[in-house]
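Class, look over these structure tokens:
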Amino acid sequence: MLVTAYGNSLRALVNLIDGVGYGGVQQLEIPTGVPLVYRLDADLRPLRHQYL
């Protein structure tokens, strides 16, 4: 699945996927134009993520 978004939309998605929390997600800087890839298990829980 490919999701494209930026700024607060991506922070909200990362918060839902990783459970970072409101305070942590406010400090999160996601670079523009750099894909962030998540690896998920069979139950769609995140195993790891990396920037390409």
